[in-house]
Design a protein that fits this description.
heterotrimer; B: alpha+beta; Cytochrome-c3 Hydrogenase, chain B; three-stranded antiparallel beta sheet; C: mainly alpha; 67% helix
Chain lengths: 189, 372, 396
């Protein structure tokens, strides 16, 4: 191929490839945009479309918190602060402080993994913008509360049962270390 | 007699410049449009991640590894997990390894999509970028369903993975791959074979094979120079020996072997190969547990180990020294972007300013990975 | 114009002894201000919105759709925002040149409207050198851009300005050479004269008159894109290389001027092509009422121009940017020789068929339809293969 050949070839290449490229972009005029028009023009709230495992802002169900401090220990950045006291009267545990600094939290999920009851868990809520860092500290304990004590059998308290079942369902999503059976929600191959 | 006199000018490219992915800085000495030299200035994104590891312990460091390279966090996760497993002699369940490979290969596609997309944007075409990002979002949706996060996954644990595949996920993933393969073809028709694009990339930043080895280039950058070196094939880890896939290398079809176009096409072809691996992995997925029994208070015996993972940006090395306590004594990460930054100074001589942008994009440099 | 001034004088609105020239000057001032403020600037603004929407659809996005119905008022909001912003002049910049540059760019954008042939009667001045005037005044842009690049005292701006100068001056040549075939065939430089030489039907357009004019039209379109700093030739403001090129240091109103001129120039590009090659305002004579005919012609002209504007947006959404040396290669090694060959070819063609060859028009038009059908088949193929949801409405 001589100089003139490559000259013509260049022009031909340019024309045909641009032709193809224009066809691709033209085909997008009849395709639906992929954009999600967050926040107001979605069919359902975006929070409700997120998967169950979504790691949003942390939430604590104090009713089923055992006060075991597993989450505090697991947190790599120490954004969870829990204060537990022994109740001299009933010899149970009293949780007097349960703070999570959402400003520090990196949403890694390591705290909710070791929780025995699924009390501390991620929600699908992600809109955490606020005006000050102070207000991002979530103080879950309004007044000191008795820690939950795991029972031998199934939970009978009608107030606690639904909360606990939700917590246990949340825990099922995590791979149980050492478990022989695959975690719930697994399909068999 | 007056002669035409030219003057060198020093340009400061970055750290705030639209085409330096993140906070890179180049001190460019240019004579008009032609560069004399571009000196990379690294260290704008140093976060002492290696030091943090010495403070937070083995389990707690996993989310930090996401931040080493946030574009392909699965590989950093995997590298850390494998290093700890090797230290403590833990065997990962087979299903766990498969989950790791599936997540990692999806992440590789996502990472390469970002790379080729931003590359097209740096060349000046905006549309391929949004198309690539659209596909990446679909993959992120899948990964989000798998592990709950879109970018900083923290999916893997020492001894396996944090979550098993959710119900119906496998079908969704396979359906996505069916959608992805034609989209990749379409992407090629849109931009890869475009004459202007090829002209911009071909013969730019040519790296000779021995130079690439000497400068320690890894991953697609190395393979584009014609060196067939892929950790997945050459030092097999995880369950990669189970799968059949090609290792794409540069062909020099569009210009010189080892130019920006080769690096670009290697990434495009790697995406197709990842898609192949994913199909096999999703089909062969064995039953069983995904996480080995690892004590909460993880204390590996004293010793040191080195692990190599083929990340999206190439051979990623993890070096861990344990002194028997709950905290690693020393952790070091060896990343591909740092080496890639090293060679830019050599390659930049004689290029045009517009080519520097192409060069950075084609080396797929991710700023946090340079400094850690 | 003269009759208007005389009517004004006769009405006594300006008093008895007002000199004719003063009234004429005021009339010209008010009229041109009305045209520019009422037509050119809103057009530039609306085009910016349309372009963002078109571009968004190409990119699977939605685009601005919040301000006003479907985001139509976005351009107004952006304009108001820019006007309200502080006008920063860098300390080390040359203040006079820095402030003057945007006006020159806008000047190059408003002057061509004087010879814009909207319809058979609607034209401000049917100069006998209309098309020459058009190409001449649009080239003033280069002075403004170069001035902006130099006066900003910023290296990125300087590179942008120099690039722009090299680019616009180079591409004047293929653009000029591509106008010659039409001038050869019509023997006039007047915009109206060129349009009158064509017919309303596609086969009578100069685009399909012979193969040479077809190539000339394409070269002219591409060169015009290069002169208007549009992708794939947006090197002067290449945002991934030069931050924002010559406009890096500008803010507020002055920044707005640059981009208004850029978007407004799209109309001028479209108008030049439509006039020279697409039959301008030509419309079949369906009525003897001149008002009806003029309205129809106005619509025809605008449809053609807006189609070309749309094509340039579409091109911008598809192609990457060329490098500066490739830009020059493309101009001097490809466009200039081909444009010369075209000119000679047309001259020979005109020598053989002085009145034009009617059969060639039909053949060329048929070939164009075949290409269009092939193109549509490719579009359908891509749309179907992607397995993405189809959505035919322009708005969302």
């Amino acid at each position: 191929m001589g100089a003139i050949g490559s000259y013509v070839e260049n022009i031909k290449d340019a024309v045909t490839t641009i032709f193809e490229g224009m066809a691709v972009t033209a085909s997008h005029f009849v395709r639906k945009p992929y954009t999600v028009q967050y926040p107001d023009r979605t069919e359902v709230r975006v929070q409700d479309t997120l998967p169950f495992r979504y790691r949003g802002i942390l939430e604590v169900d104090l009713e089923i918190c055992t006060g075991c401090l597993a989450c505090e220990r697991a947190c790599p950045i120490d954004c969870i602060v829990i204060a537990v006291e022994k109740d001299p009267a009933t010899r149970g545990m009293i949780i007097s402080q349960f703070d999570i600094d959402i400003a520090k939290c990196m949403f890694c999920g390591l705290c909710s993994e070791p929780c025995p009851t699924g009390s501390i868990h991620h929600t699908t809520e992600f809109e955490g913008a606020d005006f000050s860092l102070e207000s991002l500290i979530r103080r879950f304990v309004k007044e000191p509360i008795h820690a939950y004590k795991a029972k031998k059998g199934p939970e009978t308290d009608p107030r606690l049962a639904p909360i606990l079942s939700r917590g246990m369902h949340y825990l099922d999503q995590w791979a149980q270390p050492g478990g022989d059976k695959p975690a719930a929600g697994t399909e068999e191959s | 007699m007056n002669t035409l006199r030219t003057e060198e000018m020093t340009l400061n490219m970055g750290p705030q410049h639209p085409s330096t992915h993140g906070v890179l800085r180049f001190i460019v000495r240019a004579d008009g449009e032609v560069m004399r030299e571009a000196v990379p200035d690294v260290g704008y994104l140093h976060r002492s991640i290696e030091k943090i590891a010495e403070k937070v312990g083995y389990h707690g460091f996993m989310p930090y590894t996401d931040r080493v390279d946030y574009v392909c966090a699965m590989f950093t996760n995997q590298g850390w997990g494998m290093a700890c497993e090797k230290l403590a002699g833990i065997e990962v369940p087979r299903r766990g390894e498969y989950c790791r490979v599936i997540a990692a290969e999806f992440n590789r596609i996502a990472s390469h999509l970002l790379s080729v997309g931003t590359m097209a944007m740096d060349i000046g075409a905006m549309t391929p970028f949004t198309h690539a990002i659209r596909e990446r979002e679909m993959i992120n949706d899948l990964i989000e369903e798998l592990c709950g996060a879109r970018l900083t996954f923290n999916y893997m644990r020492i001894g396996g993975v944090g979550f098993d595949l959710p119900p119906g996920w496998r079908e969704k993933a396979l359906a996505y791959l069916d959608h992805f393969d034609p989209i990749l073809e379409e992407y090629n028709a849109l931009i890869s074979y475009n004459k202007i694009y090829i002209e911009r990339l071909a013969n730019v930043g040519v790296i000779a094979a021995d130079d690439a080895v000497n400068y320690n280039l890894v991953g697609p950058n190395l393979r584009a120079c014609g060196v067939k070196w892929d950790i997945r094939k050459d030092i097999p880890y995880s369950v990669y020996p189970d799968f059949e896939f090609e290792v794409p290398i540069g062909s020099g079809q569009w210009g010189t072997l080892g130019d920006a176009m080769d690096r670009y096409m290697v990434r495009i072809r790697e995406m197709a190969e990842s898609s192949k691996i994913l199909r096999q992995a999703l089909k062969q997925l064995p039953p069983g547990s995904v996480l080995a029994k690892v004590p909460r208070n993880f204390k590996p015996p004293a010793g040191e180990c080195q692990i190599r993972v083929e990340s999206a940006r190439g051979d990623m090395g993890w070096y861990v020294v344990s002194d028997g306590t709950a905290f690693p004594w020393r952790v070091h990460v060896r990343t591909g972007s740092f080496a890639a930054m090293g060679i830019t100074q050599k390659l930049s001589r004689g290029l045009m300013i517009a080519d520097l942008v192409t060069l950075i994009a084609s080396l797929d440099v991710i700023a946090p990975e340079i400094d850690r | 114009m003269r009759t208007l001034v005389q009517t004004l004088l006769a009405s006594g609105f300006f008093g008895r002894n007002t000199p004719y020239d003063l009234v004429a000057a005021i009339a010209v001032f008010v009229l041109s201000a009305a045209v520019f403020l009422g037509v050119a600037f809103p057009f530039a603004g609306i085009v910016s919105w349309v372009e963002r929407r078109v571009w968004a659809r190409i990119q699977s996005r939605v685009g601005p759709n919040r301000v006003g119905p479907n985001g139509f008022l976005q351009w107004l909001a952006d304009g108001v925002k820019h006007v309200c912003k502080e006008d920063i002049v860098p300390t080390d910049a040359d203040p006079v040149l820095f402030k003057m540059a945007p006006y020159l760019v806008v000047l190059a954008f408003v002057l061509p409207w004087a010879v814009m042939p909207f319809s058979s009667a609607l034209i401000l001045a049917d100069l006998n050198v209309g098309i020459l005037y058009m190409t001449a005044v649009t080239a003033i842009t280069v002075v403004g851009v170069l001035m902006a690049g130099w006066a900003s005292n910023d290296k990125w701006s300087l590179i942008g300005g120099i690039r722009s100068a090299a680019q616009i001056v180079s591409y004047e040549i293929p653009a000029g050479l591509s106008i010659f075939p039409v001038v050869l065939m019509t023997g006039t430089l007047s915009m109206q004269g060129i349009i009158r030489a064509q017919g309303w039907a596609p086969q009578h357009w100069f685009l399909f008159a012979n193969p040479f004019t077809f190539v000339a039209a394409n070269i002219l379109f591409i060169s015009a894109l290069a002169e208007g700093n549009r992708t794939p030739f947006d090197l002067p403001e290449a945002e991934s290389e030069l931050v924002a090129g010559f406009a890096t240091e500008y803010s507020g109103m002055r920044y707005l001027f640059f981009f208004m001129a850029e978007w407004g120039n799209l109309f001028i590009i479209g108008a030049i092509i439509a006039t020279l090659f697409l039959g301008g305002w030509q419309f079949p004579r369906v009525s003897n009422n001149p008002v009806v005919m003029n309205v129809l012609e106005l619509i025809t002209f605008n449809v053609k121009v807006l189609f070309l504007v749309f094509v340039s947006m579409w091109v911008r959404g598809t192609l990457p940017r060329v490098r500066i040396d490739q830009l020059m290669t493309l101009c001097w090694k490809y466009f200039v020789p081909i444009a010369f060959a075209n000119m000679i070819g047309t001259a020979i063609w005109v020598a053989i068929w002085p009145e034009g060859n009617p059969v060639a028009g039909y053949i060329m038009f048929a070939a164009g339809i075949v290409v269009a059908i092939v193109f549509i088949r490719r579009v359908v193929f891509y749309a179907k293969r992607s397995q993405m949801e189809l959505y035919y409405y322009p708005t969302i």
